[in-house]
Design brief:
2 copies of one chain form a homodimer. The first copy, chain A, is mostly helical. Chain A has a single domain (56-193), classed as Tetracycline Repressor, domain 2 (Orthogonal Bundle). Chain A has helices spanning 3-18, 25-32, 39-42, 46-71, 75-88, 90-96, 99-110, 115-135, 140-164, 167-193. The first copy, chain A, starts with a helix and ends with a helix. The structure holds a DNA duplex. Chains A, B: This is Transcriptional regulator, TetR family. Chains A, B: Residues 1-61 form the HTH tetR-type domain.
DNA sequence: GTGAATTTAGGTCGAATGTCCTAATTTTGT
DNA sequence: ACAAAATTAGGACATTCGACCTAAATTCAC
């Protein structure tokens, strides 16, 4: 892997685990195994690293969403993929929260220029979910509503899970989210028949 | 107001607006209007200030919950008070997120000793909501489930609202939460009749 | 009123930060 | 093979941080 990508991937992990502001050049350099001075050749400022990290996350998210769209047959299965990240990443979430939500929150408090850039990560999920709910037969405004609701729920579950450290809670909420989507699919199919 | 309380209140605000780690002694001193050196007499370390801030928030939260319990006639009205903080504090939430969730998240990433102390802020809300749902006629495990679900939703709405900056979204979610509670109250009253 | 206790201001300290520079080292193009 | 370019290491820099100290100012007790 190129050094630049190596730096970006390491910064991505450290920003997630420890926070953007707390993570120093020295921390990243130590983990990558290069000298601090080497940074300036790849990234002029720390903000440049942040931009690269956000771009990396955008790319990884797009890949993940595409994989879900291709891998699952029905919109319902695809939405289930989204919901199940809460279980698949439960260990990391319990420790560090949601990588998107915590970054947006921190950048918001720092009033950082990249906060809107980070927020586009959210819209990536919203847009994808809107597509799925539309494919499920929802009207545009309903699809948007359901998509945002699901995103908010996943954020909230991450946040509370980090505080309470309770696996059962996550399972319960995931089941509720699955029921929520199944109910929408059911009513939509009824509507279609009438 | 005493200097100590003045420091604590100012630190409370700055920790919320800018984050704990980012906020420096100098920042607090400047806003309070005292010299930096004066701190050491009131708080030995920055962590001591954090402890005092968490205690302050615990006290303020307890007062607020007591006020809601006394001010509202029915459990349903009391739960509505909780839900409506999302609207009452919408400006601050859109800027800085939820004061509890963002603090727990930051302390979790810092692996700070006070993270569990901060997490008790969450349990304060959970316990209070459990009481309300129990008064509404819910079984203990149901009450706990509903309480945590509502808390997670409020957290998620705060998080997504900060990213999307959309007032309509908050209104929609608040209405959904109110419907959720109303539905529980309705089914409970039906159960009671049978 | 006066001595003791509390509170305050201002400065110092080492450590750590982001940024930047320079000189080696390695890689690349021909 | 060799010059040019890219990459790397290590250190210098001004600044800021939490922590700590001392002395002046203020408040309090009697």
């Amino acid at each position: 892997m190129s050094t630049r990508k190596n730096i970006t991937a390491t910064a991505d992990e450290l920003f997630y685990h420890n926070g953007f502001d707390v993570t120093s050049f020295a921390d990243i350099a130590k983990q990558v195994g290069i000298s601090r001075g080497n940074f300036y050749h790849h990234f002029k400022t720390k903000d440049d690293i942040l931009e690269a990290v956000i771009d990396l996350r955008l790319a990884k998210t797009r890949d993940m969403l595409r994989l879900w769209a291709e891998g699952a047959e029905t919109p319902l299965d695809r939405i289930s993929c989204f919901i199940h990240i809460l279980i698949r990443n439960r260990r990391e979430i319990a420790k560090y929260g949601c990588p998107v939500g915590t970054l947006v929150s921190e950048l918001g408090k720092l009033d950082h220029v990249s906060k809107s850039h980070a927020a586009t990560l959210f819209t990536l999920f919203v847009d994808w979910l809107v597509t799925q709910f539309s494919d499920l037969g929802c009207e545009p405004q309903d699809a948007r509503h359901h998509a945002r609701h699901l995103l908010a729920l996943s954020q909230g579950v991450s946040s509370v899970a980090q505080a309470l450290q309770d696996d059962v809670f996550v399972d319960d909420e995931v089941n509720m989210m699955l029921d929520y989507v199944a109910e929408i699919a059911r009513t939509n199919s009824l509507k279609r028949k009438s």
